[in-house]
Design the sequence.
């Protein structure tokens, strides 16, 4: 598992936007979120975008979603043949079509060698890709994105990975993290409340409720980056590689 992008929407600290790359022992790679900068981030890490078979999207803001048009067109121009599955909140299909047409007019009318299979999942719902041994469940996040925002639990082989997405603190986050091997959680602000985002104080106050095996923080604002040594959990870095046991990084 590689944190390809660990930053906020504005590139604070020179970081790429949200994108986590998961490479199971068999089957295609998985992305959780695909921000606008994700194709560049993947290429910089020598992670082939054409090997990505599933993209799970937490919400439909550009720093978590808007890399998809580039991923699709890259596959088209590099003669991709394997289908790409996209799982996201209600509204994903329409928003993807609109983004494609805004960024590359006429691109949705092109016949490609692969299909883009979009599945929309509502909060409280679950889905599976049985042939790949993948299960996904969605929880409601508190983040205004023009469509429901999600926190996600992803079962891959014998591991459970949890992702907060962008959200204020809600009791639902404890359920998202519960018993997971790894919880990737945003920590956007330090002592500054921003609607729809977690402050570091939220994580300190609710530390006992986060029963994941390991917690890694993402999406830091400049003030969080300045106080990294004081954070209650490890802060992710672009290019961080987490071993299969989720115990060490390099």
Sequence:
């Amino acid at each position: 598992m590689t944190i390809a992008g660990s930053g906020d929407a504005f590139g604070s600290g020179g970081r790429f936007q949200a994108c986590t790359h998961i490479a199971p022992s068999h089957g295609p790679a998985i992305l959780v979120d695909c921000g606008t900068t994700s194709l560049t981030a993947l290429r910089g890490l020598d992670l082939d975008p054409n090997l990505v078979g599933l993209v799970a999207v937490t919400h439909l803001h550009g720093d978590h979603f808007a890399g998809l048009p580039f991923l699709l067109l890259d596959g088209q121009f590099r003669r991709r043949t394997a289908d790409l599955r996209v799982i996201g909140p209600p509204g994903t299909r329409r928003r993807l079509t609109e983004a494609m047409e805004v960024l590359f007019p006429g691109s949705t009318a092109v016949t490609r060698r692969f299909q883009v299979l979009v599945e929309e999942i509502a909060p409280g719902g679950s889905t599976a890709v049985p042939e790949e041994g993948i299960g996904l469940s969605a929880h409601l996040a508190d983040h205004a994105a023009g469509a429901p925002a999600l926190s996600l639990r992803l079962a891959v082989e014998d591991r459970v990975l949890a992702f907060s997405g962008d959200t204020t603190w809600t009791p639902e986050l404890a359920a998202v993290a519960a018993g997971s091997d790894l919880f990737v959680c945003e920590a956007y602000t330090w002592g500054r409340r921003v609607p729809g985002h977690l402050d570091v104080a939220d994580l300190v106050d609710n530390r006992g409720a986060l029963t994941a095996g390991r917690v890694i923080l993402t999406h830091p604002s400049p003030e969080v980056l300045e106080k990294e040594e004081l954070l209650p959990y490890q802060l992710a870095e672009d290019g961080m590689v987490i071993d299969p046991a989720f115990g060490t990084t390099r």
